[in-house]
Amino acid sequence: MAVQVPEDGSLLPLMEEFYTIQGEGFHTGKAAYFIRLGGCDVGCHWCDVKESWDAEMHPLTAVEQIVANAEKHPGKAVVITGGEPLIYNLDNLTAALQQKGIKTFIETSGAYPLSGHWDWICLSPKKFKAPRPDMTPFANELKVIVFNKSDFDWAEKYAETVSANCKLYLQPEWSRSKEVTPLIIDYVMQHPKWEISLQTHKFLNIP
Ligand SMILES: C[S@@+](CC[C@H](N)C(=O)[O-])C[C@H]1O[C@@H](n2cnc3c(N)ncnc32)[C@H](O)[C@@H]1O
Ligand SMILES: Nc1nc2[nH]cc(C(=O)O)c2c(=O)[nH]1
Ligand code: SF4
Ligand SMILES: [Mg+2]
User: Fold this and answer.
1) Residue 172 burial by Cβ neighbours in a 10 Å radius (0-12, 13-18, 19+)
2) Positive or negative CA dihedral for 24, 122, 4, 47?
3) Relative to the alpha carbon of 145, which ligand is closest?
4) Residue 60: which residues within 8 A CB-CB, separation 6 or more?
5) Measuring from atom 21 of ligand 1, which residue has the nearest CA?
6) What domains, with CATH codes, occur in the chain?
7) 104 close to 117: Cβ distance less than 8 angstroms
8) DSSP type of residue 137
9) Which among 28, 59, 71, 114 has the fewest CB atoms less than 10 Å away?
10) How far is it, in rounded angstroms, from Cα 8 to Cα 13?
11) Is 124 labelled a binding residue?
């Protein structure tokens, strides 16, 4: 990745930002402003935002500008996503958002060191680049994407690494929904510490 992002995270490659409804996981159904940062090398073959992967495609944008944009909306929560947002130092961005009374939520694979000040951390671990063991205990929510039935055992392995009060979700990989959703339903009924998460925004046709 040749793009020069300042190490203090004062400028970040911004792919897109949009005000919508959180579609997935614990905060499903709540209004939130999404900030999508470019850059990811985790390489999930089923990733639904491959356009985010190349950080150089996305303009370096000042934290002050991102915060000013987020502030304009009545929903006082932001979801920082990507790409893999933790490639960057998010201390400045999250401090500035929280100073404005905005809650900070993140969607991350956990493959990079944790930075930033978070009101909610959604960890979605990937086989293609494992999460850092020092970061999984900080997850408020573990959201495992199920592509095939081998992912249940793999999900259990990560459930052992998170804190006791971490919420546990199984989410069907979108293109495999028809095949894996019935398996997830059975699994959750047999192992009720898990819950189903669906990408509800895709059914609602919203961003
Ligand atoms: C695009 S990722 C960006 C954040 C971070 N790189 C990550 O993977 O957590 C946002 C969320 O979408 C999930 N996701 C991506 N592609 C998906 C797909 N095809 N089906 C279901 N969930 C998907 C990810 O697992 C993650 O929870
Ligand atoms: N509505 C909506 N909810 C989401 N939850 C996580 C998303 C993401 O791409 O990180 C996402 C997204 O792209 N849209
Ligand atoms: S880690 Fe997230 S952004 Fe990166 S390829 Fe996987 S799903 Fe896509
Ligand atoms: Mg998405």
Assistant:
1) buried
2) negative
3) 1
4) 3, 5, 11, 12, 13, 14
5) 173
6) 11-204 (3.20.20.70)
7) yes
8) G
9) 59
10) 13
11) yes
Task: Give me the amino acid identity at 151.
Answer: D
Helix, strand or coil, per DSSP, at residue 36: strand
The structure tokens listed for 56 are 């150089």
**Torsion on CA atoms 199, 32, 90, 146, rounded to nearest 10:** -10
Residue where the block lists tokens 């990745």:
1
Report how far residue 50's alpha carbon sits from residue 40's, in angstroms, rounded to the nearest whole number: 9
| Token pair recorded at residue 203 | 């059914």
Ligand 2 probe mutation, 15, 34, 197, most atoms within 8 A of CB = 34
- Cβ–Cβ under 8 Å, residues 146 and 152: yes
**What's the CA dihedral at 111, 113, 116, 122 to 10 degrees?**
30
Looking at the CA of 24, which ligand is closest? 2
pLDDT in tens, 36-89: 999 999 999 999 999 999 999 999 999 999 999 999 999 999 999 999 999 999
Residue 194 structure tokens: 């898990």
- Alpha carbons 138 and 135: distance in angstroms, whole number: 6
Digit-coded pLDDT (tens) for 18-44: 999 999 999 999 999 999 999 999 999
Q: In which region does residue 88 sit, left (phi positive, over 0), alpha (psi from -120 to 50) or beta (all else)?
A: beta
For the beta carbon of residue 98, count every other beta carbon within 10 angstroms.
16
Per the CB < 8 A criterion, the answer to whether 172 and 147 are in contact is no
